[in-house]
Specification:
Structural class: mainly alpha
Largest sheet: none
Helix content: over 70%
Distance between the termini: 25 Å
Number of strands: 0
Number of helices: 20
């Protein structure tokens, strides 16, 4: 316990917080029925968590350096547990979205401190082993999320996808208090609260603008105001970071095309690979009539191939330039999206398998190589900042992808169904249209909407892949793909090296 207890404690928290990124996908139709939730509500159930995690990750990491990483990790886990209880007990969509945002805040505190805690607890070969196990746990959480969500939703009910976090949180806190040592950065570190707040407003307002634009029109007052606030917050973030003695993100790094290319790849990766998945799940269950478990199994090729390719890539692609691995992986993800844009009114779940499989192969290539490419693109002193930025932009890409592809989906659907019926069907209420809209019309419209969303996702992956191949060039020795997970060594090097 003394030797591997810290790894167990940290891995429990990591598994739980990353599982909650994808576990809700299969439960969306049941949530919509139970809470009378709209499509916009369902999008915020996903994006509220991802945005809080993305927007606060860098800032909370800096706060943990000052206040104590173990302390912030325990506080984050406790907040995550309380918010999970609130999610499970939510009586309305608004309460569920609010609880998910708080849950994301707790997850950011957990995620920002995991690797520094491992770095403080282990040295030498033990550290390499611990990081390898942690990376495997991170990959498994993404693969198991939809499966666990399907089993719990079809079994005790969708609320248990949140209740299950409670005993895991208690175990993680107990272990952390017993076996994880406290650690801090050297004295003198400051917390960039202004940068944290301005980045959070930029990300949240921009995503809100995309969602409102898809629902009420891009020229609507709400959408225009949100985009204006987002632009102003971005300007404030740039001004703050240029003057900060210890910025969250040193903007001079963005002058390096290789580093900027990695961030473009991170956004494009999570958006193209995962942004359409919630709508595929709704289609499988509400239009094709599949159960939550069966719907989750249809998505298994994406997660399964990703896990297998990532596991084998460390050996087979050792020494290959990350630029090539990431670029080709993104092109495959884009190709997978294009392969899924072939649905019609008579399509079944089998139509998705080729695209999901190809995208899974690409995902398995991209995910392990992102961190290595980020580290190779910046000076060693900026390794932690680079790794944190990659993680932040990945989650931001997922949140924006869900919002953008949902807008494309409903725009295509309302051409034949009308505004209200399109949003009802896309939000999991296809059965509510029976008697007013022919079933074939709903199937045809949903298929058309998914084709548009998948096509947009495919183009996003292709463009991101081309940009990475063009931009991510560095004279330094290429980092091996075996720098396993996207959240691996960066923060360890910053805080412990």
């Amino acid at each position: 316990m003394r030797t591997w207890g810290p790894l167990t404690a940290v891995s429990l928290g990591t598994f739980m917080l990353l599982l909650d990124v994808t576990i809700v996908v299969v439960a969306l139709p049941d949530m919509a029925r139970a809470l009378d939730a709209s499509l916009s509500d369902l999008q915020w159930v996903i994006d509220g968590y991802a945005l809080a995690l993305a927007a606060l990750l860098l800032g909370i990491g800096a706060a943990a350096d000052v206040l104590g990483r173990r302390r912030l990790n325990i506080m984050g886990t406790a907040l995550f547990a309380v918010a999970s209880l609130g999610c499970g007990l939510a009586s309305s969509a608004e309460l569920l979205v609010a609880a998910r945002a708080v849950q994301g805040l707790g997850a950011a505190a957990m995620f920002a401190t995991t690797l520094p805690l491992l770095g403080a607890a282990y040295q030498g070969r033990d550290r390499s082993v611990a990081l390898g196990v942690w990376g495997a746990v991170s990959g498994a959480s993404a693969a198991l999320g939809p499966i666990v969500g399907g089993l719990l939703t079809e079994g005790p009910g969708w609320r248990w996808i949140f209740f299950v976090n409670l005993p895991v949180s208690v175990a993680s806190i107990w272990l952390t208090l017993r076996v994880v040592p406290e650690s801090k950065a050297p004295a003198g570190r400051r917390i960039d609260w202004a940068g944290t707040a301005s980045f959070a407003v930029f990300a949240g307002a921009g995503t809100y603008g995309v969602l409102r634009g898809g629902t009420h029109g891009w020229a609507s007052t709400a959408a225009a105001t949100a985009f204006a606030v987002s632009a102003l917050a971005l300007l404030c973030f740039v001004l703050v970071e240029r003057r900060a003695a210890q910025p969250l993100l040193d903007l001079r790094l963005l002058r390096k095309p290789a580093f900027t290319g990695v961030l473009v790849g991170a956004i494009g990766y999570n958006a193209a690979a995962f942004g359409v998945i919630p709508y595929l799940s709704i289609w499988l269950q509400t239009v094709l009539g599949m159960s939550p478990v069966h719907g989750s199994l249809v998505l298994l090729p994406l997660a399964g191939m990703s896990f297998l390719v990532a596991a084998a890539g460390g050996r087979l692609l050792h020494g290959v330039a990350p630029r090539l691995v990431i670029g080709i992986g993104l092109l495959l993800i884009g190709a997978g999206g294009l392969c899924m844009a072939v649905l019609d009114a008579g399509s079944t779940w089998t139509s998705l398998l080729p695209g999901l499989t190809i995208a899974g192969i690409g995902t398995g290539l991209v995910a392990p190589a992102l961190a290595g490419a980020a580290l190779a693109a910046v000076p060693p002193a900026n390794a932690g900042m680079a790794g944190g930025a990659v993680n932040t932009f990945r989650q931001l890409g997922y949140a924006v992808g869900v919002a953008l592809f949902g807008t494309v989906l409903t725009s295509r659907m309302q051409d034949s169904l009308g505004h209200d019926a399109a949003h009802t069907a896309a939000g999991g209420g296809a059965s509510a249209l029976h008697g007013t809209v022919p079933a074939d019309a709903v199937r045809s419209a949903f298929a058309s909407g998914l084709n548009g969303a998948s096509l947009t996702a495919g183009i996003t992956g292709l463009v991101a892949g081309i940009l990475v191949l063009v931009m991510v060039r560095t004279p330094r020795e290429p980092a091996p793909v075996a720098a396993a997970t996207p959240e691996r060594a960066p923060r360890v090097e910053e805080h412990v090296g």
